[in-house]
Amino acid sequence: MDKKKVKNIFTEGPVEAAFIADSIAKHATKTSIGGHSIFLGQVRADMVDGKQVEAIEYTSHVEMALETMSAIREDIFAKYALTCMHVHHSLGIIKAGEICLFVFTSSKHRKDAIDACTACVERIKAELPVWGKEIFEGEGYQWKINN
Amino acid sequence: MIEVMFFGQFKDATGVSSIMVEEVANTDMLIQMMKKRYPALESSTYMIAVNNAMVTENTIIRHGSKVAFMPPFSGG
Prior knowledge:
heterodimer; A: 147 residues; alpha+beta; Aldehyde Oxidoreductase, domain 3; 8-stranded mixed β-sheet; globular; B: 76 residues; Ubiquitin-like (UB roll); 5-stranded mixed β-sheet
């Protein structure tokens, strides 16, 4: 659409713990950073009318979501003194207990990293065209509603 | 032609992820057309994006545009 670089944030399947650990390790060379903040979204095994959620299947309007995420990224970098920010959102089937969202912000001082991380997660939930279908154990499903 | 895309529960309701339709002047006319074709959309809360940009008012649809019918977002 425009000259902004659009980064991919989507991964098929869950965000693995090893991937998260590796992301943290990669920042060891960035020694101007004094604080990191990490948000991990995990699929919950909710009970709905006696049925348990066993997984969430995520789908997205990918092209629009990536453009929206670029705009959010730009806003967040304008508002907070961040060194870097990384966002990974899962697509496809993510089982209860697995990680579906990983937001990682780093800054010189903790407050920017913490506040930027919170702001980013809130905006992802409100603005990204992503949908979660909660799949029940056995059979059936319902569409997830964000609070 | 215009590409009309359905996401989330709208993909369930319409049974398709996208359809091609003849030129339609604006989003109000397209919404009426889609509600007629897919009555399930009638009672739903939806958001419309034209070429990846959300629209809240009646918007002109240009040739070759992509229009998305989207239920409330539930990512994360």
